[in-house]
Amino acid sequence: MGSPIPLLLYHSVSSDPPTWAVPWTVAPERFRDHMNELVDTGSTPLTISALVDLITDKKPLPARVVGVTFDDGFADFRTTAAPIMAERMIAHTLYVTTGALVPRTGREDLRLPAASMLQWSQLAELEAMGTELGGHSHSHPELDTLATAHAWDEVVRPKKLLEEWLGHPVRSFAYPHGYSSPRLRRLVVDAGYQSACAVRDSFSSPDDNLFSLARIIVRPDSTREDIRSWMQGVGAANKGSDEWHRTRLWRWFRQARSLVSHPLLPGSHQREE
């Protein structure tokens, strides 16, 4: 396995998040400390697509490479997180749930609880601040529990909407909840993405599957010292041999739960690992 690469996963940066988002929210002061640590340790932040380009072209990676990523598209990304990163010239990637962007594109069956979200009109401004924008589904479901046609729509629709709005290709995708499968990865490839992020709470590496890149969840109590350790390649797991079995069993449970809640026509659901 190649050298460990920390791909950091944030969601919200706020001092007053909705109750449901507290476990996924980092305070602004703590986030500022995290970004200062990246600067002070001489890290090389790259967008996910820039990192993937280097890996694909088999070019040497810069020293202390790191990926800073955000999921969902909370409004505080523009007001708080993006300015902090822009001030420090930290490249980063934001994966947006397009059905949650304001104004809504229609009557959405949105799976995200209520929260203040980004506006469509802010996306170009974010790109000017150095943000790479990627797709994160349209309604934020557990994609690997959906019938193929429904999963395809959730994968391809955010790409089409974002590309129509931004006027250029959207190259990367992130699986909602981190859940994927070989079937989903094929859909992401077929949709025209060039990479996709999972979660796994482990380091990535140049040998990682480019359509299932491992990320480390940054939690409210993650410290500056945690960031320093991750940058040194310690303090998080490498993908363990039992990860596939745990993921498989958990997927079976969620698929069974989904079938009880939302029965599908015979043959319309495919279970793959």
Give start-end ranges of low-pLDDT stretches: 240-273
Please name the CATH topology: TIM Barrel
Shape: globular
Give the H and E element order: EEEHEHEHEHEHEHEEHH
How would you state the average pLDDT, rounded?
88
* Overall CATH architecture: Alpha-Beta Barrel
Q: Considering DSSP H and I runs of 4 or more, what fraction of the residues is helical? A: 25-40%
The number of domains is 1
Any idea what the radius of gyration is?
Answer: 18 Å
The H-level CATH homologous superfamily, spelled out, is Glycoside hydrolase/deacetylase
**Biggest pleated-sheet summary:** 8 strands, parallel
Tally of helical runs = 8
**SS-based structural class?**
alpha/beta
User: What proportion of the residues form beta strands (DSSP E)?
Assistant: 15-25%
Distance between the termini: 22 Å
Output the CATH class name: Alpha Beta
Number of strands: 10
Kindly describe this structure:
The protein is an alpha/beta fold. The chain has one domain (7-242): TIM Barrel. 35% of the residues lie in helices and 15% in strands. The protein has helices at 28-40, 48-56, 76-87, 123-128, 148-166, 182-190, 224-231, 243-261, and strands at residues 7-10, 12-13, 25-26, 44-45, 65-72, 92-96, 131-135, 172-174, 195-200, 213-217. Strands 1, 4, 5, 6, 7, 8, 9 and 10 form an eight-stranded parallel sheet that branches. A two-stranded parallel ribbon has the order 2-3. Helix 2 links the parallel strand 4 (44-45) and strand 5. Helix 1 (28-40) packs parallel to helix 7. The longest helix has 19 residues, at 148-166. It starts with 6 loop residues before the first strand and ends in a 12-residue tail after the last helix.
